[in-house]
Amino acid sequence: MTDRSLQPPSPTATAPRRRGGAATAVFVVLLVLLLAAAAARLCIGQTFGWPDGDLGQSLWRLAIADWADHWWPSLFEPSGSLTVMDLRLTRVVIAIIVGASLACSGVALQALLRNPLAEPYILGLSSGAALGVMAQSLLFYYLHLRLGAGHVGALLGAAATMLIVYAVSRRRGMIDPLGLLLTGVVVSTINGAIIMLLNYLVGPGGLRENLIHWLMGYLSESVSSATIMTVALVALASIGVLTRLGPAMDVASFSDAEAISLGLNLMRLRTTLFLLASILAAGAVVLAGPIAFVGLICPHLIRALLGPAHRALVIGSALTGAILILLADLAAVGLDRAMGVGLMPIGIFTAMIGGPVFLWMLRPQLGRDTE
Q: Among residues of the chain, what percentage have pLDDT more than 70?
């Protein structure tokens, strides 16, 4: 008899290990790139070099002290005056949250609709969330209530837009991929027009002082720590749920009959994905306004590197999205230093990258693939 332990493992046994090793290597590289981009952003601003202030104290103030003081006043001692480190760290944290949220929202939408072209901005979720923020701001203003960050309005706006797009794009009970995209673009345009109309007709002066910048995606240090950390906790929980749903999303990529025969509750999964995509897109809009194509570029890149397995896709997309927004912010700061043009909206840079990628991916949908 031969010793089985000395026999080489079969290819089917080693394949998952190889995929897992490749995924780990990619995640390590992405994490290193993320840390490098964050460090570079901390060093680059109006001045170049490591900013004044203590990184640990700034993290404590942003993540715990200021957030806790919002909900439980006087729980901590006053944190003192802000430093340059505080301001730059705030932008870095917002960029990471926004990038990860938009990328994972794209993963959820693509799994929900079985369409690799689905993305929060293209389908109108981002503009719907922006409209919700504007509507909530106006409502609170005229009711003389304390102006909130727009969490509820953003979530309702994103969910309502998604329901409209989903309902209009159905043909005989099935989703028409091209119809879905066209409907999303039209609804997004309508949402943008309503936002501008509200701003001009009924918006009080100063409510959205920099509306054009905000509509293109703009990182601001003026966002409160309470808002940042609340959105961060919700986004972290949502991404965690998406990661756990990875195997279920793999099964859902089959036909409905096959997925149900494998024991998957499709209705519950699709409802969960719908809610998670809306929550993540809404949180990103609350922090930075609508930003295009992050939810398209990042899942597509990770899928090309690691394949279609959704658990790895969620983690890799979150890291890639954070890196992309940080790089866009670095580009905005670099142009400001070089040309003195002011900080541009980061949506300019994501659109310049994502637009060509979207057109390239759209070719087969239009029946123009030359292969």
A: 83
